[in-house]
Amino acid sequence: MIVPGPLDQRTGGYLYDARIVSELADLGASVQVHSIPGRFPEADDEARAGLHEALARLDDGSTVVIDGLAAGGVPDVVADHADRLVIVALVHHPLADETGQTPEQIGRSFASERDTLRHVRGVIVTSPFTARRLADFDVPEDRIRVVEPGTDPAPLADGPPADAPARLVCVASLSPRKGHDVLVEALDRLRALDWSCICAGSTTRDRDFSEGVRSSVEARGLGDRIDFCGELETEELEEVYRTASLFVLPSHYEGYGMAYAEALARGIPVVGTTGGAIPDTVPGYAGVLVPPGDVDALTDALEGLLVAPDRRDTLAEGARMHAQALPRWSEQAGRFRDAVSELSALDARV
Question: What is the largest CA-CA distance in the chain?
Fold first, then answer.
């Protein structure tokens, strides 16, 4: 498996890759991970050379899974090795669907990834939504396999103490796609209600956006109510989930939305959006979804749940019920192994 940069990065895509590798090893599979240096997805010279060298070192006929973040921007490098190796792409979501790009960047990303996917045996995606989306990239349906992320069993959330305000929890890196700026504006409109909000996730992946959001919080006088605590270790994050009243993440787009599933696994009601695959991940009986980027709709959804604890309780019951149906990582690793095997057996695309 080839990934861009270190595998231990704490985003949904990297967490998926790392967990699949770990679970495959538990199933007895032999997996070698190659971390490619450089800048992705608009690859610089170091990235291009790194991917070429990693592929060149592999024996003829080797099966290699390349994370789409590493492959999507370098179709020529993938093409150079497609006849010699069995290459499967892993697409968490198309590069062109990333929020914050200019129309020119979107066009380049789309064309580049479409060309890359023409040279692989098949594609593994993390949601049915992305499988449908790949029709736009000329990927035949029989060359696509869906392997959704797994979810670990987790203790149910207790919520905050009885005399404490409702506690909103948001788990995501501060980046344009996650919509923290929309959340801050909605919460500003709800300052008269009793709530606190903790945002857990990297504040350094997009420094300009992160600084802009945090400056907005201070300018609005909400610094004592909205806490950006950065990336948390597992035990610290578990404590954040344990005391949550409500999970909120107004993403503009998700290829699956692992953070939503983690909240549902703990019986926490969700406020999210209809962006990308989120409606497939969050059922209507466990959360409220609004159009992405719609501050008015997000404000109304949050207000409706903050002033109606009984409604939150009903959605929490739905979340607890849905948690029983979430797939486990061991199951998904087995499906991933089978998907690689099935796609590897297909003839190279002409």
Answer: 66
